[in-house]
Specification:
The chain is about 75% helix and about 0% strand. It is mainly alpha-helical. InterPro entries: Bilac:Na_transpt, Na+/solute_symporter_sf.
């Protein structure tokens, strides 16, 4: 929510006006929420981090491989195989949330999806570079499509 909106909500709900800056609001949230949660869950988070990282990397590798193999097995063109590889391998953060909820519970629910988001920023560009080095599957130049004016 934008920082201008929060004072408006306070005015509407409490009949009082307050002046809040983003920095002070962020600082309060860190002090009231993040620090206590992290301090109280430090051991659990550190204990689960290695397992979560391994699960995220394995889950992503299986998704990328499955997307690629299924695309090829069903006779898709190379450009569709590449698109399917990305879609299956890099769009499974929702499943990561479900896995985190089922296996970690509590405050660790956000750990796997957060790791997944970071890991996608590693595997996505790496895979795009690999595909790019293999050339355009359509055999043409990498140019934007012409306008249909």
């Amino acid at each position: 929510m934008r920082e201008e909106v929060k004072p408006a909500w306070v005015l509407a709900l409490a009949g009082e006006s307050i002046d809040v800056t983003f920095a002070s609001l962020f600082s309060s949230i860190v002090q009231i929420v993040f620090i206590p949660v992290l301090a109280g869950s430090k051991g659990v988070i550190l204990g689960a981090a290695a397992a979560a990282i391994a699960a995220v990397v394995l889950h992503n590798a299986i998704g990328l491989t499955a997307g690629n193999l299924v695309g090829r097995a069903t006779g898709m063109s190379e450009d569709r195989v590449r698109a399917t590889t990305f879609e299956v391998g890099l769009q499974n953060s929702g499943l990561a949330v479900a896995l985190a909820t089922a296996h970690f519970g509590g405050g660790l629910v956000a750990l796997a999806p957060a790791l997944f988001s970071v890991w996608h920023n590693v595997t996505g560009p790496a895979l795009a570079s690999y595909f790019s080095s293999r050339g355009d599957p359509a055999g043409g130049e990498h140019a934007p499509p012409e306008s249909a004016d």
